[in-house]
Fold each of these.
Amino acid sequence: MDVVETQQGGPGLAQVRRVRTEVPGPRSAELLARQRAALPAGVGSALPVFITAAGGGVVVDADGNSFIDFGSGIAVTTVGNAAPRVAERAAAQLHRFTHTCFLVNPYESYVEVCERLNRLAPVPGEKRTLLVNTGAEAVENAVKIARAATGRPGVVVFDHGYHGRTLLTMSMTAKNVPYKQGFGPFATDVHRAPMAYPYRWPGGPERCAEEAAAALVELIDRQVGAGNIAAVVVEPIQGEGGFVVSAPGFLPAVAEICAERGILLIADEVQTGIARTGAMFACEHEGVQPDLITTAKGLGGGLPIGAVTGRAELMDAVPAGGLGGTYSGNPVACEAALGVFDEIERGDLLRRAAEIERIMRPALAELAERHTFVGEVRGRGAMLAIEIVRGPDRTPDPARTAEISKRCHAGGLLTLTAGSYGNVLRFLPPLSIPDSLLTEGLAVLAAACG
Ligand code: PLZ
């Protein structure tokens, strides 16, 4: 046990699945008891095993169990946990200076992260980037900028959307329990449109994009009035909402609807961005060019950093002093982000994400063949999911979803659930996972499905 506690993470960690206790094991159970006495009940964990090291494709717990990682800390350690270039750059920065507050004294790494995002983001024309600490802060700032640039208050979001836990982003989030229950009153001027969710579209998948676009127009033109709307905020693939890949053609239609009405399109790429889907940004798969893009999660390789990248004239609509934050663009997090870009380039990780899909998709499709309760396989790159239903009537089955996930955990595979109905098993392996563990993880999943 004490050996485990001094273990180094990163790719040097033994790449094995190993379950040697119950899950959670005795040491984790002890720590969980301390957690319950010290933390509020509102903070829960998907898999309450206490982690002592992680890297490559595994996370190791305090009982010496080694789990295959199909979660990446919710799409954060995309380049790998304790990835070498991230850890080295962040550690070196810790010894130079830990903080100045960019509003007090600037430093080069902040500017360099912005330059990199400006170069990479599929936003048209000249670009600017603002750094913040979290995904919610990125979304919140994107809306502030959109309001300042358009002089309009309204925000349009979608069913099943997730945008964060702050007042505005919680108001923008669709699902009530557990995100919103008891936390109102909510922010005003947030309007919700149906998402083009092909598997659950009443008129069937073929008519999904067109009918969802028509519903959006109805909301904008009839119910709110285009002149009152600053922005439409959309996740190119919905994350917490269940890895909903919108019907092909829907995102370009949304972009056109926005452009025709002077409404800004904000792509929330907090979960999809930074190489996760096999492109730097998921928008690129549909050739969509949003006005503003939010990123976080994968950007810092585990250190807290978020960003808003957008058209220069919009970003510059807020005068000096209007944007900031004590810790925003912290120098250690900036170095980590530069390490992330390095890892992606040198490791050819966009290709790796596509390769992961090529390995995983056939195995997931086989599960759907074998079990009527696997209703759909969907996603892109290293962001894949299966939706669990009762049968051909597609009634969501959250109980079976939780049961499969629990069996995966007991078998040494870290999986996460998602979805408005809690019936989606989502897979977000780090791009550093070896093929052997990917295949082994899929076998554990297959066994858990019965
Ligand atoms: N936008 C698309 O996925 C965060 C939430 C974890 P923060 N998703 C994980 C939880 O239950 O708190 C997310 C996202 C999209 C915004 C956010 C918010 O990002 O960094 O959690 O604030």
Amino acid sequence: MAYKHITFPEGGEKITVKDGQLVVPDHPILGFVEGDGIGPDIMRACRPVWDAAVQKAYNGKRKIQWMQLYMGENAAELYDGDYFPGETREALQDLIVSIKGPLTTPVGGGYRSLNVALRQELDLYACVRPVRYYQGVPSPLKHPDLVDVVIFRENTEDVYAGIEYQSGSPEMRKVERFLKEEMGARFFDHSGIGVKPISPFATKRLVRKAIKYAVDRGRESVTLVHKGNIMKFTEGAFRTWGYELAREEFGDVTITEEELYSVHGGKQPQDKIVIKDRIADIMFQLMLLRPNEFDVIATMNLNGDYLSDALAAEVGGIGIAPGANMSDHVAVFEATHGTAPKYANQNKVNPGSLLFSGVMMLEYIGWKEAADLVSLAYPEVIQSKVVTYDFARQMEGATEVSTSGFADAIVEQIRGDIDLETRRERERKAIEADRKEREKRRVSQPFAEMEDSGRRPQAVGDIMTRVPVTVRPGATVHEVTRVMREHGVSSVLIEPGADGQWAIMTQRDIVKRIVHANRSPSRVRVEEIATKPLVTVPSDMELHECSAKMLESNIRRVVVEQNGNPVGIVSDTDIFAMVDQFGWEPAEHY
Ligand code: NAP
């Protein structure tokens, strides 16, 4: 394809997509947009770092062929005032993978924001922001090293959809009339009105991307962050559709958090990712107090906006937070800060944000070794206190260097003797140890763990007593009472006899069918006095519904069943303990 101002590099091939996967040649053509303000400074500094990492990792076998694309002020100069030329849009789509610096929002120009235009026109529906800590970076947290999450923020809908009506406008009056008169809604007169659409389509493609990312990289969990307790049909639906997608498309590689507790007793199976959800407000608290419990996060536009910047601040601020906007395959990696015009062309600012966006890009094309080299070289330089002005002002005894000076120091580290394998192994072991430690707590104190980790019991599986004690049908009542005493339980399940049915015997049966009936416990077999068939409930039954079932059947405990087998028991005592510990909020007052 012939472009007007864009020129193809001498060598290299384009990345393509085959069977839903990127096919990356050894010399891929990647697009770059310098951006405005400090953009050229940081892009100029970062490209040699990425190139050095690729050269070192693959001994020259692989090489990025850069192709410059134009957006923002330099585009306006070249293309007669057009800040986002059509051929740039085509090239971004055609090359599939590109990286860009920050862009000025043209005042009074054709676009509200170039970044918004870019996302909309290329349908880059997921904003992906990894947030992790690098040793030596100034942070307000005591243990910033516990933060390592990747946020998938939905980019196209929510209150950002642009469906808004100004207070007093004819459109607003029309919507107000409809809502009040036809829908019976109540709100103050002359309110500005915004609409918050959340669709199953957009939710599912976002959650699909997040889960796929977690699966490909062996991450531990995906957390759906929402405010579904208040906004049931938008944020609540996001949660429902998220779980639905996980079950339908990733059922063999995921379990829910509820299953983690109810089926697996808190032990995470090796090859399964846990899908969980948290209310947005609690999430902010948890990311300060227990950040290591979260891994991949999928959320809607507004929550994601707040969360991305708040989390970035935990590990050194947006100056070094990387990001990308992605569609199914097309991805534009970008510095997440603005153009900081007062520092333009001074070779002064921190290139960290763009640098790590490049690391994301290398990972995205499968060049993990090169990505790791940059990630490992970076903390070495920071810990030697060679930093740009922004970190220097927060560190004692720092040596302040320029943007390019900092990049040179990283290149020097990359070219030195980084022992990639040993460091990777160290990181892997640290992650493993942390996971094991948390697993131990989940197994030994599930209730306390649930409360501390911001999860409210919602379903039967959350509060049931796991692994019920079972006995053979032929055992005598005398033998069984001993078993009950040893295990400290007030009921046991009786394995199926000839009729194939499970049964239950409780302390109450001893009162009624042994003492009151005047029979000898050593002569009566337990199956004779046990009750069957069992009253059972599925582990995902809501607690409210479960209590209804217990009252209807006039029983004090129900058996929780999964695939025809009893996996737990919920009793009055469990429900009492849950209310005592967590309280009980009627659904409509959440
Ligand atoms: P900004 O450009 O991000 O700069 C705000 C402040 O953040 C700077 O003055 C500086 O703080 C610090 N900072 C930003 N990048 C830094 C870096 N690489 N190294 C060290 N410090 C850095 O935000 P803004 O002034 O609000 O926005 C300016 C323009 O950028 C606007 O036109 C806006 O629309 C645009 N923008 C673009 C993007 C994008 O393209 N993705 C994103 C946001 C904003 P100190 O003053 O404390 O040194």
Amino acid sequence: METKVVRMTEEQIDRERIREAGDILRDGGLVAFPTETVYGLGGDALNPQSSRRIYAAKGRPSDNPLIVHIADMDALSLVVKEIPESAQRLAKRFWPGPLTMILHKSPKVPYETTGGLDTVAVRMPANRIARELIRAAGGYVAAPSANRSGRPSPTVVKYVSEDLDGRVEMIIDGGDVEIGLESTIVDLTSDKPMILRPGYITRQHLETVLSEVEEDNTLMRDDSGQVPKAPGMKYRHYAPKGNLTIIKGAEENVIAFINAHCAKEQRDNKKTGVIATDTTVGRYCADVCKSAGCREEEETIARDLYRILREFDDENVEVIYAEAFEDSGIGQAIMNRLLKAAGYKVISI
Ligand code: TXA
Ligand code: MG
């Protein structure tokens, strides 16, 4: 299949191309598009064939449900059985934005889209290109992240093309994304609201609207003996090809430890890499040293983390060490993804 790539910005939306993309989706085709979190791989959420095609294009197990993206509040009532008050409040405060809610699904949503579940994940993205596309497609776009299964989610269009060229009808290039990590997922179908995937909207944010918010026990560890509640979180995601280990401890100790290990790996002819921060990046002796951003501005780290993981692949780095980050606030989302990328390999020194 020939993949058409079109370019536009949120400020200058190309209505003609959006209409064309909407028609592709209405006809059961696939379009990759930007959102504020990561790029999405879109298909018509109410068409079972489209969802099947999404799974095939991604190489994703079909028991891993998709998020239904909507552009207007009216659309919510069609895809869910009922809208609890908690959902109303969250939507009012955080939509459009990087928050996904799990609710009981209505019969309109095919089981192909929900991976066989009676619940459905719904999100209203803030990115204007995404919202115009959703409207042009008829209002309901199922979209997982636009990566091949197991790779880090794409935050720049180059990696969308790398993973999906020839597998989708169209890719909309809307430039680099703003946030860089996937949306926060909160389950509203259990007794108490529960975070299934941490993101830019933190527990503290959610607690400004909901009195009590729980967290899935498996978010920051793999030894809980439990299966993650979001089916997608059980897979080893976000993984670079190189062997990644997180090093936790006082800054000077971490630098000394990583440099000693890099020197040893280099003697064994291994290509080494380090994920550092702006203040430490100059102090490492690895073959490839990258700063994820500034510790005081964790948004910069969130935005660049996946791109950096991909770049290590591009440069065939075989052994990667990463500094650890604070695991509160948005740092929790950063560490959740980094831990998964590392297969939970952490050395505390
Ligand atoms: O920011 C985002 O959410 C991006 C952009 C494109 O919107 N999308 C995204 O989709 O990250 P995906 O498919 O890569 O991740 C969706 C996650 C998976 O872990 C999936 O298992 C979980 O949401 N999920 C979907 N429906 C669910 C449900 N009914 N119950 C529990 N988890 C669900
Ligand atoms: Mg994904």
